[in-house]
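User: My collaborator sent over this chain with a note saying "see what the structure looks like." That's all I know about it. Can you take a look?
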Amino acid sequence: MNLITFSGPPSSGKTSVIIKMAAQLALKGLKVGAVKFDCLHTDDDLAYERAGIPVKKGLSGALCPDHYFVSNIEAVLDWGLNQKFDILVSESAGLCNRCSPYIKEITAVCVIDNLSGINTPRKIGPMLRMADVVVITKGDIVSQAEREVFAARVHAVNPAAIVMHVNGLTGQGSYELAGLMQVGQKQVDSLKGSRLRFSMPSALCSYCLGETRIGASYQMGNVRKINMEEQP
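Assistant: Without extra context I'll predict from the sequence alone. Here is the result:
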C-alpha cells in the first residue's frame, strides 16, 4: 500500500484536491482511503463519504495536532492495510506553521492557496519547505500575474519541490497529480523505525499542561521571552 501525507493551512482546499485526485485514481482501478486529522471539529469526513471514499477521522482536542498525528499514524496504517487500499492518504492541517507531519521516504504534499497572501510561503515553515509536491489552489480567482508571482514565492522557499496548480472545484490538474502519486511510490507495510523529516514543536510549558493564570510565577518549563529592549 502507498501512503501519502497531505498537509496545508486550514481552508486551503486539501480535501477537495484529494477527492478529485482519488476520483482519477479510481478510474484506474485503484482503491483509495483517507484519514482526516484535525483539532476541534471537521465535516470533511462527510465530504469523503459522499465521494465514496472510506474515511476515518481523529480530533486532537487540546493536544498538538502533529503530536497526535505521529502518535496515531501506525494505527492508521494498520487500518489501511486491513482495508486493502492501494493508496492511503492522510490529511492534516498545520495550525502553528511550525509543524511538518512528513515522514522520510513517504511522499509529502503541501496544499496552499493563491489567496493566502503573497508572503505566506515564507511563513509556513517546514510544512512547505520539506514537501515533495506543492499544490497551489484557487488559481481561478486571481490573475495570471498573481499566479506566477505566488508560484515563484513557493519555488523560492522550496526549490526542490514539484509545484503544480490544481482546481479543487473543477478537478483541473487532478489527473496530473494522480499520475504523479503513482510514480516511484514506496510500498509500506509498517512504519516502525521510520523517522519524521522534521522534529515536532518543542513546547512544554505550564500552559500546555492546563495552567490558566497569568504571571511569571506560573510559567514553568519551556518558556521564551521577547527581548523588548532590543526592539526600537
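A starting point for your reply to your collaborator: The first strand starts at residue 2 and ends at 8.
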